[in-house]
Amino acid sequence: MSEFLNMGGYAAYVWPSYGLTLGVIILNIVWARRLLAKSREDARRRLAMRGEET
Amino acid sequence: MNTSVLEASSTGTSALEAARLMLARDIRLALRKRGQLVQPLAFFAIVTTLFPLGISPELSRLRDVAPGVLWVAALLSSLLALEFLFRDDAQDGTLEQHVLSGQSLTWLLFAKTVAHWLLTGLPLAVMAPLAALSLGVPAAALSGIVVSVAIGSVALSLIGSIGAALTLGVKRSGALLSLLTLPLSMPVLIFGARATDLAIKGAGFAPPLYLLGALAVLGITLAPLAAAAAVRISLE
Amino acid sequence: MAWTWFHRLGSPPYIYGLAARLTPWFAWLSAALLIGGLYGGLVLAPPDYQQGDDFRIMYVHVPTAWMSLMVYTTMAVAAAVGLIWRIKISHAVAASCAPIGASFTFVALVTGSLWGYRMWGTYWEWDPRLTSELILLFLYLGYMGLRSAMDDMQRADRASAVLAVVGVVNVPIIHYSVLWWNSLHQGPSVMQLAKPTMPPSMLIPLLVMLLGFTTLFAALLLVRLRAEILNRERTASWIREAVTQ
Known about the structure:
Chain A is an all-alpha fold. Chain A is built from 2 helices and no strands.
């Protein structure tokens, strides 16, 4: 297991690479979902305001 | 001054004739404000002075970096000069008239860009050897430098016209214009600096010069189309 | 029959619903592929005889580099379609691509420089592939910058579309001029990214990762696209039902 973590001595390069990639993937997912949630919320609010006007 | 181009459309003038009128008009107008034409050249001179101050007064060291310095300075000052391409016409509504005139906008913008090159790029090509001398470049290389900057600046003006057209009316567009234009100008920098480097070493610099020419030709054929599309979008 | 389907593609509510239904499929598929690919690349593939375990960075660098280019092309094609045929949805697709592509490009740059450290001894070298990736990042930033500079959505769509098309035409020019520039100087050896013959145990995880990233992009794109559609179709009647579910 420690051999796996050590990556043949290249641990300092391999694991940060994978870590960054995973981090950016998660960032993308969270960001996209937040944008959608916000858009839905904005749309609901707009509809509610229009509903009040009628 | 503006009406001659507009009249051209009503009398059924060809696109080429309208382009020629536009070229003459732009040059005539620009020559009235000669002070403005000098500014990009002064900027070029100042930038090329910055590098010796930042690096070393030794000509031998400067000669090594001269190609890069000259071309980076040329790129930056042509970027600065882009402001003059559309600004005045956009501000007083003349550009809109050109779009509505029924003349081929592509040809009109090509003419404007040619005028711009004659007023900014060509003078840069004349100034470049002076800056080169100050960087320790041997006199034998100077003609090569003039030619390469002359051709390269054609490409730069054309590439720049696209960015200028896209950012019409955008406030404080300087940084954005640079961000758009500089990546597209990098091939010009690569080939131009290489041609200059070979000229300094006394070697044949035809291959990169041809590549520069190819970029210029590509720009001539495609850039006015993109710029015309961009102007229409910006003025809608 | 085929035309009906094509016309429906231009209809925002249809696309919104389609995107909502497709997203989970792409999401779970990409998760499975990425996890499988990671296992294959980190555990199953044997160490390289030359690079040892360092080559495993390839399993994240190559897919993200590939994605950075693929996403830009997708963005440019969508932008061109929107510009030429005036299909608004296409512009929404292009807008959704940019942040995803830019982040992949960033990862490609960092993983590329980490991978190169073994060979170069430094964290950065003006390797032609990395230099091209860097310029691609600038192109993405320029696209996003132009978009954000314009308040009018239609102008932003169309201006950035022109820029994307100009950019995609320039990508090969930039790539070859950088390659040429790099070859002139006795620079660092070009990063060995594509090994001439890769044994299947090494190649298959790479292909799985490539597919995984592509499906991930599809999922992310569909989510962002839905957000774009909602923002653009501000008071359309179909939205009420869509957002109150």
